[in-house]
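Form 7-S
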Amino acid sequence: MTTQERWRAHVAAWKSSGLSCRAYAAKAGINQRTLTWWKSKLASAGAMGPAPASFVEVTEQLTAPAAADVGVIELDIGSARIRVRGRVETEALARVLDVLEARR
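Output:
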């Protein structure tokens, strides 16, 4: 297996794992920065298949019922904008942010 094939396999496994880059790298025993570098290199070479969708549908409820005294969280991450009204379940928002981090 070539070095590129090895890292292509790691990047694909990371994407399908649902883990953050840090968590996957720790689990696999590899350097997090090397993993992100290979992700970028393979993506720019078109070696990872089709580009990710520009819209990701979230199918579970991420907020608790809104209260009058609760504000809005709005995050701009690259070309993605996340707007959440009401109280946010911390773990659900963390999963969404991990997915966005993995697509960078």
